[in-house]
Amino acid sequence: MSRILVIESSARQQGSVSRQLTEQFIAQWRHAHPADEVQVRDLASEPVPHLDADLLGGWMKPAAEQTPAEQQALQRSDLLTEELLAADVLVLAAPMYNFAIPSTLKAWLDHVLRAGKTFKYSETGPQGLLTGKRAFVLTARGGIYAGGSLDHQEPYLRQALGFIGIHQVDFVHAEGLNLGADSMEKGLGKAREQLARVA
């Protein structure tokens, strides 16, 4: 049995294309792997605070010196990190906001990219500790950006995930969603076809 961790980051609950892709992924995965456990963390309904002094204090101070707020921030980071560590497959649903990922997803990454937990520093540089895991990234984009200079999603997420040792990453892009009905239908259809193959 494998564990699947799904991270939703769309600000919209209704009409979200990335959520539609997530639903398709989960349905297909459960059909193919009925014994697997799927956990969904929704960063819109349960926001993760952005990196702040309390979280830094929780990471850096000895337990006896931490304030209650720092202890709470550390406990939250520990919970999110343990969820990631326990997962065999990571699914990130990431609509494109202003050429990049939602700030809520960046906040989640800031909580789980942790020295000594998900990566470590060695004599040869940083080393990811989450080897053996697989990731899928499902994006929704108003325009067409894949492979272009304005795509700051895929390069960043590949680097962030690779930094912690996740190198097997499949991207499914639903693009051209705001370029008219035909473009939307084509972009969503292409994404669904690709998703059917990878999931």
Structure description:
The structure is a single chain. The strands form 2 sheets. Strands 2-1-3-6-7 form a 5-stranded parallel sheet, with helices on both faces. Strands 4-5 form a two-stranded antiparallel ribbon. The protein is globular, with a radius of gyration of 18 Å. Helix 1 packs parallel to helix 6. It has 6 helices and 7 strands; from the N terminus they run βαβααβαβββαβα. 41% of the residues lie in helices and 21% in strands. The protein has a single domain (3-198), classed as Flavodoxin domain (Rossmann fold). It is an alpha/beta fold and 199 residues long. The chain has helices at residues 17-32, 53-60, 68-86, 103-112, 154-163, 181-198, and strands spanning 3-8, 37-42, 89-95, 119-122, 125-128, 134-140, 168-174. Quinone reductase that provides resistance to thiol-specific stress caused by electrophilic quinones. Homodimer. Its EC number is 1.6.5.-, 1.7.1.17. It comes from Pseudomonas pohangensis.
How confident is the prediction overall: mean pLDDT? 96
Unreliable stretches: none
Kindly estimate the percentage of residues that lie in beta strands according to DSSP.
Answer: 15-25%
Strand order of the largest sheet: 2-1-3-6-7
Number of helix segments?
6
Structural class: alpha/beta
Helix content: 40-55%
Family: Belongs to the azoreductase type 1 family.
Protein name: FMN dependent NADH:quinone oxidoreductase
Subunit structure: Homodimer.
Organism: Pseudomonas pohangensis
